[in-house]
Write a structure and sequence with these properties.
- By secondary structure, the protein is mostly beta strands.
- The protein folds into 2 domains: about 10-70 and about 130-140, Chitinase A, domain 3; about 75-120, Beta Barrel (Thrombin, subunit H), CATH 2.40.10.330.
- It contains 1 helix and 9 strands.
- The longest helix has 7 residues, at about 45-50.
- The two termini are about 15 Å apart.
């Protein structure tokens, strides 16, 4: 039986869970994800866990915040003067909007709204969380 080696193309399914068990991503509802091991297409911890495994095997990988979406940084919660924003509508807390940061568009979550300021959180929604991934190898296609 063949095992996963660097350079192999894999078809994978995975289930991604938050610390409370909430599933935030499940690929079993559609076609498997195709990746080439060693091409940095997936988290290095996933690649490491998959090496040496066989078709049909499921591996569980637990990523601390530093290896997933980073630590939650309070400094990324920023009040912005409304006059600096070109808003097409009145934002509501929890809504994701795009703002310009250093002349680049950045998606942020609205956390507060006042008459003068909109407070946004530029952390990734999963920042600060330890995440669990269950990855199933559906198919191994060997490299030449």
């Amino acid at each position: 039986m063949s095992v996963v080696e660097s350079g192999d193309t894999l078809q994978l399914h995975f289930i991604s869970k938050r610390p409370d068990g909430e599933i935030f991503e499940n690929t079993h509802t559609h076609e498997p994800v195709t990746v080439i091991i060693g091409n940095k297409q997936i988290n290095p911890a996933f690649e490491e866990a998959l090496l040496g495994k066989t078709e049909g095997e499921t591996v569980t990988v637990v990523l601390p915040p530093e290896k997933a979406y980073g630590k939650y940084l309070k400094r990324l919660v920023i009040p912005i003067n409304r006059k600096k924003l070109r808003l097409e509508h009145e934002p509501k807390p929890g809504e994701i909007i795009t703002v310009e940061v250093f002349d680049r568009p950045c998606k942020v979550t609205v956390v507060g709204v006042t008459q003068r300021k909109i407070t946004v959180d530029a952390n990734h929604p999963l920042a600060g969380e330890t995440l669990t991934y269950e990855i199933t190898i559906e198919k191994i296609m060997k490299h030449d």
